[in-house]
Amino acid sequence: MDKTLTSKYGPCIAGGIIGLIAVALVHFGNPGNMGFCVACFTRDIAGALGFHRAGIVQYIRPEIPGFILGSFISSLIFREYSPRGGSSPAVRFGLGMFAMLGALVFLGCPWRAYLRVAGGDWNALYGLGGLIVGIFIGIIFLWNGFSLGASESNPKAAGLIMPLISIALLALLFIAPKFGDNAPVFFSSSGPGSQHAPILIALGAGLVVGWLAQRSRFCTVGAVRDFLMMGDAYLLKGIISFTLVAFIANYALGTFKPGFESQPVAHTNELWNFLGMVLSGLAFTLAGGCPGRQLIMAGEGDSDAGIFVIGMLAGAAVAHNFSAASSGAGIGAYGIHVTIIGLVFCAFVGLCFRDRG
Amino acid sequence: MSDVITVNASGLSCPQPVMLTKKALSEISSGRVEVLVDTATSRNNVSRYAGNKGWKVSTEERDGGYKVILEK
């Protein structure tokens, strides 16, 4: 199996399995077209911890710690656990924050953008268009020498931080403690946060996907980037397989509902669906990979990716505390502002961080 | 025998190791290039790129990562 996953067919096979699991998770209770959404799930975790107080999106999604732990275990087994860090961590925090803000203007990370299309939500086509444009802008910066600098090898224990945080999150999920009146841990009683697959199924799915993605290097941003930059379709086949299998599974289960209106956890504002994902795609490209890939690298011991993920957690809090997140009703009051600020931030980073070598 | 060109891509995020390899290979038509990387992902990416371009690829483990040796 491992030979297959690390072969040229690896991303294609992993993508197909991940697509199938994604649709299964919706079948078992996750919100519509949200079998996996790294942005939405991280946002729900931020809510559960009380970092924001949007009552309908608070839940410790076990898929996220599952990704990290699945990758961590896989990297240990296959001797790829490699603690490293020190490549502009504060900038990566900012990129993670703005990647999340852009994703919450669109209402989904790149994984969910593909899944929304696979479920017939045509609003996501604007998001996908924005994602591709954002990645392409990132490529222009890369062509002009953009680099956040080299990371360095860290002590073995340094890579344990994100896996330990993952275990702590799972403990909070299973024990569900209350830290006082109107204090975390919060679990939504209505809305998307209340819709979830059974804990063990979701955790198992996260662990399996963490392993598959660690071995195959599945990356929803690298797929487009490598194809546009070098004509390399290796990772792109993973995304095509992911979307195609999810579409077939949706069709078979009757959850393929084509159209623009009344799509689950989505709005119909074309421009900001597009621009939100331009911001996300650019931020992910500058950081070297999609949000899922950042979780996988964090599991392998990459603390720069870990900082990016924590930046995403902070971005989720900012999005909801400052009314920047979209909802089914449309974009948030300050969604436009944060998107523009984010694009300016990313342009600043893209222009200022050049390889001096 | 021509000189060995060493590309230090250790610690760099995707896709910079492949970009540096591409740049180095574009400057020569044959010879030996050694690319230093720190992760298995970068090792695989560089190997795949160079292999697709017709270079003979071999890899060695080194302290803190891998050396990808490209020959033509």
What are its keywords?
heterodimer; A: 357 residues; mainly alpha; two-stranded antiparallel ribbon; 15 helices; 2 strands; 62% helix; B: 72 residues; alpha+beta; Translation Initiation Factor IF3; 4-stranded mixed beta sheet; 2 helices; 4 strands; 33% helix; 35% strand; globular
Can you put this structure into words, describing what you see?
By secondary structure, chain A is mainly alpha-helical. Chain A has helices at 2-5, 10-27, 38-48, 63-77, 89-106, 110-118, 123-143, 161-175, 199-216, 222-230, 236-253, 270-287, 291-299, 303-321, 335-352, and strands spanning 84-85, 152-153. Chain A has a two-stranded antiparallel ribbon. Chain B has helices at 16-26, 40-52, and strands at 4-8, 32-37, 56-62, 65-71. Chain B has a 4-stranded mixed sheet with strand order 1-2-4-3, with helices on one face. By secondary structure, chain B is α+β, with helices and mostly antiparallel strands. The model of chain B has no long low-confidence stretch (mean pLDDT 94). Chain B contains 2 helices and 4 strands. The chains are: A mainly alpha (357), B alpha+beta (72). Chains A and B meet through β2 and α10 of A and α1 and α2 of B.
User: Which two chains have the most extensive interface, and how many residues on each?
Assistant: A-B, 29 and 21 residues
The first-to-last residue Cα distance of chain A is 41 Å
| Mean pLDDT over the full residue set of chain A | 97
Structural class from helices and strands of chain A?
A: mainly alpha
Order of strands across the main sheet of chain A: 1-2
Low-confidence stretches of chain B: none
Number of helices of chain A: 15
Number of domains of chain A: 1
Structural class designation of chain B: alpha+beta
Number of strands of chain A: 2
Task: Report the helical percentage of chain B.
Answer: 25-40%
Order of neighbouring strands in the sheet with most strands of chain B? 1-2-4-3
Shape verdict of chain B = globular
Report the β-strand fraction of chain B as a percent range. Answer: 25-35%
Encode the helix/strand succession of chain A as letters. Answer: HHHHEHHHEHHHHHHHH
- Fraction of residues in helix of chain A: 55-70%
**Total tally of structural domains of chain B:** 1
**Biggest sheet of chain A, in brief?**
2 strands, antiparallel
